[in-house]
Amino acid sequence: MTAPGRRSTTFSRLLRHGFTDPSAAERLLESAELAPVRTDPVLLDALGATADPDLALSGLVRLVEAQDGHTAQRELLDTLIAAKPLRDRLLGVLGASAALADHLARHPSDWQELVTYEPQDLHPGVTEFERGLAAAADPVSLRVAYRRCLLSIAARDVCGTTDLAQTAAELADLATATLRAALAIARGAAPDDAAQCRLAVIAMGKCGGHELNYVSDVDVIFVAEAVEGADERKAVQAASRLASHLMRICSETTVEGSIWPVDANLRPEGRNGPLVRTLSSHLAYYQRWAKTWEFQALLKARPVAGDLELGEEYVATLAPLVWHAAERENFVADVQKMRRRVVENIPAAEIERELKLGPGGLRDVEFAVQLLQLVHGRADTSLRSGTTLDALKALAAGGYVGRADAVQLDEAYRFLRSMEHRIQLYRLRRTHLVPEGDADLRRIGRSLGLRSDPVAALNREWKRHAAVVRRLHEKLFYRPLLDAVAQLAPGESRLSADAARERLVALGYADPAAALRHLEALASGVTRKAAIQRTLLPVLLGWFADSADPDAGLLNFRKVSDALGKTPWYLRLLRDEGAAAENLARVLSAGRLAPDLLMRAPEAVALLGDGDGGGLEPRPRAHLEQEILAGVGRAAGGEQAVTAARGVRRRELFRTAAADIVASYGTEETPAVADQGALVDLVGGAVSDLTAATLAGTLRAVVRDGWGETLPTRFAVIGMGRFGGHELGYGSDADVLFVHEPREGVAEREASQAANAVVSEMRRLLQIPSADPPLLIDADLRPEGKSGPLVRTLKSYEAYYRRWSLVWESQALLRAEFVAGDADLGGRFIELVDPLRYPAEGLGEDAVREIRRLKARMETERMPRGADPTLHTKLGRGGLSDVEWTVQLLQLRHGWVEPGLRTTRTREALAAACAAELISTEDAATLDEAWVLATRVRNAVMLVRGRAGDTFPSGARELAAVGRYLGYGPGHVGELLDDYRRTTRRARAVVEELFYGA
Fold it and tell me: Which residues, including other chains, have CB under 8 Å from residue 325's CB and lie 6 or more apart?
């Protein structure tokens, strides 16, 4: 009987020793099996030192119960108390792994594997593991022997006898021995197959890299050759049967469970390709078809089983291809895209707990190291290690990675891998998710030596190391480029000039020598500016490399920095504003237009921040007009006033272009805007509003300069074409009509002279050469075209339209909208033209035929010579003209009866026609998609080239920049052109039916 007070004393002792269920632990200690040792303080101390004392005690009781008789039980307990190495190993395993406790309960004599504590036992290799598996003759006995060997690895691991790298290497060596044993079993089962072929097993992934987990797919590639005199086809078939059997031996579930899946999906063509190939077949595939990631995977290729001579030949044959992979076009972009794709495929509910694949996870370290190996390993053979930590050490020793960065990454990688090992060891299940339960987290934390509040400590250390990886994994590639041009402390290694140029070329820089000069200019010195830029540049270089023209991005950043580097707010903006630096990098490397606008007034960089710079949201027309008119009012004369207006226009063009670029590229925090139509509407609306406000300010300036406050005639500007339709692009002219009406008592001649003088002066002032882009005014849509007067009175327009108006003029007037000047006069002009553009009862058949004839003539006569009609955005097949003429014909025919069609905007009119069932939903979507795409291409061409164009650029770099703006990554320009042709071809089919009536 337990003495009074005894329970509370034992209960307290168990709590102090880390038990979470002292009552259950007390009952287990009182069991008959532990009677000989229950009072021995050594046992309780040893249990308290384990990761999970409750789990360790439960496992110990099960193991003692499973012993064959009292003598065996006594031997186990006596050895446990007397031999500290066994005690630490056995209880350590029992406290960390329920799965290995189950194994010991099924195979109770296996505890004796942990008794031996000789020096040669501390770090076994393939030979020792082969010896441990030698007796296995079938899949079941192989599993038992495998677990027995795994038991000793886990024991050394949890006791700290081996570190992370040694444990991972031992697990890889055990896998090697296991593959050899499995192949031997397969050969024994099919001796005829074995006699026909030489089969080599190439380990890939973590097994090939000698850094395996406790539970992981073992990635392999099989290569085979016929033995002398054998038929090659039959030999490959025989090798395939052996390989398949080997995979089943390891992967299939038996009464002893499975070992691990053998995964051959890294082979050429993946799971769709043959399981086994000859060496020449492998070589042909990698020479012709392999993708960048497949060369990256070959970094870890290592022959482990079968014909090792053939395996070594395989590695030697493919090695030259691996070390030239960095010369492939878009190499860095391909590797980084693969990493992003991995992250994007993680379920949202798991991404925060994903230890391997999530942001700041193990894969970030591995990808960064492999990227650097592929870039520099061709010239430096010391980097050609398949083991991540060894490769990281070699990269630091060679100056390819900063030593401080390498140390931090090494520590983070070791901690994260150790967490992964402890998570997997518990149930021997393949998982990379950090568990959510406190009991699991407590066990993992204690197993890693975090004994004071282990749950909180584990979460803190995990997040800290993940943050280090997140911060460093991309900078790792760029920061040494700065060290290559900076002053380093004595003893520090630096990237050689050749290695720096090699890395810049891999990043896509066409002129690495110039890039290094820019880096030196930006990063050298001891000023605050240089210090901030040294911090920023590793990140900026990555963003520049994500564009189609990294050279331009870096050069433009240097120009902006030279112009603004001494202004405190600029440095503060880049340092403190989260979005500003990334937005700036995107804008500076996306083409010529936005940087040109910025260079003319670099202070506009403030718009790129999150704070008081105004942001990138386009400003409403009323606000723009108010600012421009205020600036005009303060100016001393007409030229100064219009200079102020053009300055606002330049700044707002930059704001719009920057917003468009950032939304099209996306940022690390915000994905690219998926709705292409919304981006077209944003640009069209913003540029049209800005043009209207600029014309209003210019008109005010000209009138005030020549006539004071009042012009002798009322004057209005009517927007036409894309301007009236709120669809202006960056390079569009302003299509307008000018209308005036003499004031009372003013002679028509005097009024006409004044109106013409106003138009002439407005055009002159808006085109004066200056730092600001000109605004070209095009009045060719006026009555009589270029032959007619620039300005007419309202009565003159009325008389002309009543008597002489042609059907094309009615069509042009569909876009007419008042934009500046006398609002009453502008409104009366719109009332005048409404019956022309929305004729009662619609268009007659003659008028319809005339419009079709004009369109057909335009297609044949106005297409530039040599232009590809399938790629011309304005006049080409299914382009802007096709869609707009089709929509406008619907407006002319049905606008009198369908109010929704009475709009100047193409997309609005198309939506209204669909709502009125004048066009099917499918056809409307086809036309809208083509119109939006063609408009986006025109905007992209202007952003990239800095000048307007209706065709895709011919230069590869400019074309790639257009593609990047439109969401096509590096190497996918061909897909862009194919998609454009496909989209416009479908649109042309709709046009043929709706416009031409085909």
Answer: 292, 295, 296, 331, 374
